[in-house]
């Protein structure tokens, strides 16, 4: 949650402080820095030392810190911790080294920002207010000096008292009293007037020399009710900015009428007789007006307003009519809708980011300011990364965003709105009477992306899967075809299946067998027109034409449906392979394989049926009583010759459709328990009403199926991961075949062999055949990740299809498209003898194993954790080879070598404090990882030595020295007769000689870690001669100070020695005198 911000008008840098004690510094797009206060206390105020390369931060724990911005990694130079008083406001005049600090007790203390020591000069509240006043004026809410007289300080107290304090005479010149509490004060640049904002929604304008009543009282949003306007909400902040030509600007936040219930937060801009009310999407935290000059006694010439919202940053252009906003280049909109999942891809194809940027640039909204982004300070880092990186975030509103994460930048490339596929206008009958929650029905749960083919597949919380193709051309989808599978419902008298009133099911096909053609169903009542209103998907696909802009365009929509009043289970795993043209997804009851090329369901299989007769688990029925049992389709889509052709079954009657909605009646909706740890339940799919979709003539014919016994929740086995690869499908095989490996939550890895038609026209007509080939291995815990290596230990990524333009239809281009669609196989068949082995790397929540193929023997095994469990695991490519990277729930990040599984690194990095971390943590190649450290921030980390060594060069420079503009000209008559800006020798006034020493118990000075050593590092960068000269002076001053200290110590030592020598001399003198006297007597 951001709390405050400050802008340096010369360096053009913006600083934002947050409630968690973080600092975010922004310069030009790509120049950004993150700092954190160790205490974690909220940042209440920030003050730049303009053109000095430093920043002062005040925290809620009553500490003040001086940050050095002259180095790439800002560090704290000094800290001051107040012990007896609470800090409420700070003010640092331009080109001054004396910081005014107001407190809750109403006192003002003064700090030297160079040494960070307190001055003995203190303004006590009882001296500031009238002696006759017995009430305490309240905390200090404002401090600022008169723009024309630095010796006059205006102090605003919360109770409504404003005092003009004379610093030299140490007394109050004028006092101004108002009945309502004050929130802020702002000067007119001539120093003759100031304006106050109050808790009743009024603005009062005062003459400095007229202390009786305000010369004007304004209620910007008050309605006239008789003589006095009705009270409004407090005006939290006001700024008063002047221009050489035209009326001044009065800018304020708050002050709306109390009867505007539900109205969005507003920023009000009053310019002359016009008043503009600018509505914001989120509550306003703070705002700041950007001006041309840093001098407060000159015409301000405001040109923009930076508005800090709770969840956004808005910059308004004051120079254009209508006050348009600037297009924000910063990655602050990552939480525009809450992030529900994310993926991280490093070393992507080089043409991918330009392609996404090209289509994303066309999405820009109209109405932005035509000017360049005004916050343009700093310089980019010198180091460059040789590979592009992309982060994809899925959001609660169904949005998918692509971000350029190359080097250390984060910039949005493209935004995809998946909710456009569905019909948002649902009647009450559609929603049904038993609706549970419908807050985020479009939320993204899992994403699968192939960077080479640019195919994208997303799974939502409403049990839907959408497949997208990337196109540079715009297309309008005229027809969205809905194709649904039928299912069977059997009433079984016993778990053995004897007797029943339903249709008998056919046997499960044997592995590798071709599907037989089934006739049409004998009971039409088993279609979607059930009396219980079931068989409805959670979302309704829109039936009107859909205009799809260049970018990602929907190719296929798959939905699971309600069955017998039970909602579908959420999808727990998802994978796609562009070379095979297949998408596979699973949940707690089974899996489905969809051929998105032919728009068919290839396989619809229950988890138990993956094992066949080799099921290692004892699964008992819940009870022997009569029950309705769901039928899992275990066969293939019937597209052989028979009652209907593949053309009739799998395609729309219209030949030019661009997308197909495939509503699959997968019987995954029988149970409601959650078996997969990382699944985030954002909302439960609500029941939809009793208006089923119309039955289509081209629906799929009955699939082969077999009944599955109902099992206990403890024995439920969900699908947790998938992996496509060209490998040895069975034990002892001598040839490589395409395979799909399935991992379950009980630690089993099962293999399915894929028989694919030849590329080209045959791929459009012939079916894909899938046959189970048995179990590969079993591990402890849920299967997290699978990967395959060749005999040398190099990764074997799945085959992929190069991207092609899908919307080109010309004959010559069509032939070119078919040629390009030949899959690119990255299997070792071209460089490796097929008799050589491969390695399968499998990682579960508890352990990792490496299997040799085709012998299927375990050659390496490693127990990763016994007391905890793994949240995320990936097999990643490093610069020197491969490794298994794991993030454990106890906060450890570990890496293991492959194939040997030797521990390489074990760092206790981050304990699991929020499920958000578990949901969003992901590894990528070349030693990088990321997660959401808060709902609004992405944290990127690296465990690569190469990146760590180059990180300093990759960082940008925040501070760039700028020549300070000349002070405004006083003019001949003002210089002759006075009236211009009056300067003040603050050193003489606040120094120790004049004011004495401050109380040591009031505040404690804490030296920071970023002293001169940190500043030396900054001097070697672009700071240049000015910074080096400054540091040299600081070093000289420090050395002179050390010399003074040594000289003083030597003088003290000499005095002590002299005193001691004098005492010894006296002792010797009296001793000898006594001896002489005694001897003479004798």
TrEMBL record:
Gene3D superfamilies: 1.20.5.110, YVTN repeat-like/Quinoprotein amine dehydrogenase (2.130.10.10). GO terms for biological process: exocytosis; Golgi to plasma membrane transport; protein transport. Its main location: membrane. WD repeats lie at residues 175-209. It is a peripheral membrane protein. Keywords: Cell membrane, Coiled coil, Cytoplasm, Exocytosis, Membrane, Phosphoprotein, Protein transport, Repeat, Transport, WD repeat. Residues 514-531 have a biased composition (Low complexity). It holds the Pfam family LLGL. It is found in: Cell membrane; Cytoplasm. GO terms for cellular component: plasma membrane; SNARE complex. Residues 1011-1071 form the V-SNARE coiled-coil homology domain. Belongs to the WD repeat L(2)GL family. This is Syntaxin-binding protein 5-like. InterPro entries: Lethal2_giant, Lgl_C_dom, LLGL2, V_SNARE_CC, WD40/YVTN_repeat-like_dom_sf, WD40_repeat_dom_sf, WD40_rpt. GO terms for molecular function: GTPase activator activity; myosin II binding; syntaxin binding. Residues 491-544 are annotated as: Disordered.
């Amino acid at each position: 949650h951001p709390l405050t911000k400050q802008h340096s008008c010369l360096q053009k840098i913006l600083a934002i402080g947050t409630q968690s004690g973080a600092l975010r510094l922004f310069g030009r797009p790509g120049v950004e820095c993150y700092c954190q206060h160790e205490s974690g206390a909220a940042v209440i105020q920030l003050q730049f030392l303009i053109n000095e390369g430093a920043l002062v931060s005040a925290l809620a724990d009553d500490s003040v810190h001086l940050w050095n911005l002259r180095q790439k990694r800002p560090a704290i130079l000094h800290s001051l911790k107040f012990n007896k008083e609470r800090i409420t406001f700070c003010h640092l005049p331009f080109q001054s080294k004396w910081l005014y600090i107001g407190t809750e007790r109403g006192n003002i203390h003064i700090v030297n920002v160079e040494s960070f020591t307190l001055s003995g000069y203190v303004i006590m509240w009882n001296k500031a207010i009238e002696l006759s006043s017995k009430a305490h004026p309240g905390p200090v809410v404002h401090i600022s000096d008169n723009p024309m007289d630095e010796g006059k300080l205006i102090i605003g107290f919360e109770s409504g008292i404003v005092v003009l304090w004379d610093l030299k005479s140490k007394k109050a010149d004028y006092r101004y009293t108002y009945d309502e509490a004050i929130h802020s004060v702002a000067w007119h640049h001539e120093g003759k007037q100031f304006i106050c904002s109050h808790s009743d929604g009024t603005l009062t304008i005062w003459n400095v020399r007229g202390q009786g009543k305000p010369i004007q009282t304004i209620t910007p949003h008050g309605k006239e009710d008789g003589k006095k306007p009705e009270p409004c909400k407090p005006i939290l902040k006001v700024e008063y900015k002047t221009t050489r030509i035209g009326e001044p600007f009065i800018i304020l936040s708050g002050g709306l009428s109390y009867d505007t219930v539900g109205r969005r937060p507003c920023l009000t801009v009053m310019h002359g007789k016009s008043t503009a009310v600018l509505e914001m999407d989120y509550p306003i935290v703070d705002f700041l007006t950007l001006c041309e000059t840093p001098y407060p006694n000159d015409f301000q010439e405001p040109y923009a307003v930076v508005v800090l919202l709770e969840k956004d940053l808005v910059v308004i252009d004051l120079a254009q009519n209508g006050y348009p906003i600037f297009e924000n280049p910063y990655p602050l909109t990552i939480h525009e809708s809450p992030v529900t999942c994310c993926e991280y891809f490093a070393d992507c194809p080089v043409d991918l980011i330009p392609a996404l940027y090209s289509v994303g640039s066309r999405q820009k909204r109209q109405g932005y300011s035509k000017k360049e982004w005004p916050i343009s300070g700093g310089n980019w880092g010198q180091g460059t990364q040789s590979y592009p990186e992309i982060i994809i975030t899925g959001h609660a509103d169904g949005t998918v965003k692509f971000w350029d994460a190359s080097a250390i930048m984060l910039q949005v490339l493209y935004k995809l709105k998946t909710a456009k596929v569905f019909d948002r206008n649902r009647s009450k009958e559609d929603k049904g009477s038993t609706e549970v929650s419908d807050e985020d029905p479009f939320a993204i749960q899992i994403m699968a992306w192939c960077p080479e083919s640019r195919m994208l597949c997303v799974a939502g919380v409403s049990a839907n899967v959408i497949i997208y193709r990337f196109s540079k051309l715009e297309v309008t989808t005229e027809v969205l075809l809905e194709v649904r599978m039928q299912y069977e419902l059997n009433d079984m008298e016993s778990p053995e299946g004897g007797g029943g009133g339903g249709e008998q099911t056919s046997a499960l096909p044997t592995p590798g067998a071709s599907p037989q053609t089934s006739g049409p169903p004998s009971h039409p009542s088993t279609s979607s027109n059930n009396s219980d209103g079931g068989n409805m998907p959670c979302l309704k696909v829109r039936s009107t034409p859909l205009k799809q802009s260049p970018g990602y365009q929907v190719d296929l929509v798959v939905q699971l449906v309600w069955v017998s009043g039970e909602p579908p289970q959420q999808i727990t795993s998802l994978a796609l392979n562009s070379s095979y043209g297949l998408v596979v997804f699973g949940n707690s009851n089974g899996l489905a394989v969809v051929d998105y090329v032919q728009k068919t369901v290839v396989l619809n299989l229950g988890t138990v049926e993956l094992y066949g007769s080799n099921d290692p688990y004892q699964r008992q029925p819940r009870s022997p009583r009569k029950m309705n049992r769901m039928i899992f389709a275990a066969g293939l889509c019937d597209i052989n010759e028979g009652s209907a052709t593949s053309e009739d079954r799998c395609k729309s009657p219209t030949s030019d459709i661009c997308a197909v909605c495939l509503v699959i009646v997968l019987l995954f909706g029988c149970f409601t328990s959650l078996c997969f740890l990382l699944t985030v339940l954002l909302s439960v799919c609500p029941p939809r009403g009793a208006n089923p979709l119309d039955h289509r003539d081209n629906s799929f014919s009955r699939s082969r199926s077999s009944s599955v016994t109902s099992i206990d929740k403890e024995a439920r086995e969900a699908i947790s991961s998938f992996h496509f690869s060209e490998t040895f499908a069975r034990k002892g095989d001598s040839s490589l075949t395409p395979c799909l490996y399935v991992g379950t939550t009980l630690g089993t890895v099962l293999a399915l062999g894929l028989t694919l038609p030849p590329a080209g026209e045959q791929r459009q007509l012939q079916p894909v055949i899938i046959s189970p080939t048995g179990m590969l291995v079993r591990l402890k815990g849920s299967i997290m990740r699978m990967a395959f290596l060749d005999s040398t230990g190099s990764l074997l990524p799945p085959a992929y299809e190069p991207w092609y333009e899908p919307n080109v239809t010309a004959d010559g281009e069509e032939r070119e498209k078919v040629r390009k669609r030949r899959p690119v196989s990255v299997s070792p068949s071209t460089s490796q003898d097929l008799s050589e082995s491969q390695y399968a790397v499998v990682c579960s929540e508890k352990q990792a194993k490496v299997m040799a193929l085709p012998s299927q023997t375990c050659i390496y095994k490693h127990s990763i954790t016994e007391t905890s469990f793994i949240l995320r695991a990936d097999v990643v490519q490093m610069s020197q080879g491969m490794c298994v990277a794991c993030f454990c729930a106890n906060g450890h990040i570990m890496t293991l070598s492959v194939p040997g599984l030797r521990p390489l690194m074990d760092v206790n990095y981050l304990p699991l404090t929020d499920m958000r971390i578990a949901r969003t943590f992901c590894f990528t190649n070349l030693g990088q990882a990321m997660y959401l450290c808060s709902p609004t921030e992405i944290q990127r980390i690296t465990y690569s030595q190469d990146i760590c060594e180059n990180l300093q060069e990759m960082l940008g420079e925040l501070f760039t020295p700028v020549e300070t503009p000349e002070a405004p000209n006083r003019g001949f008559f003002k210089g002759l007769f006075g009236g211009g800006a009056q300067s003040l020798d603050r050193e003489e006034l606040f120094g120790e000689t004049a004011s004495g020493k401050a109380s040591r118990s009031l505040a404690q000075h804490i030296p920071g870690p970023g002293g001169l050593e940190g500043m030396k590092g900054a001097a070697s960068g672009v700071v240049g001669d000015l910074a080096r000269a400054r540091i040299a002076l600081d070093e000289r001053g420090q050395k002179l100070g050390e010399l003074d200290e040594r000289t003083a110590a030597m003088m003290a030592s000499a005095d002590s020695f002299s005193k001691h020598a004098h005492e010894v001399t006296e002792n010797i003198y009296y001793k000898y005198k006594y001896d002489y006297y005694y001897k003479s007597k004798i």
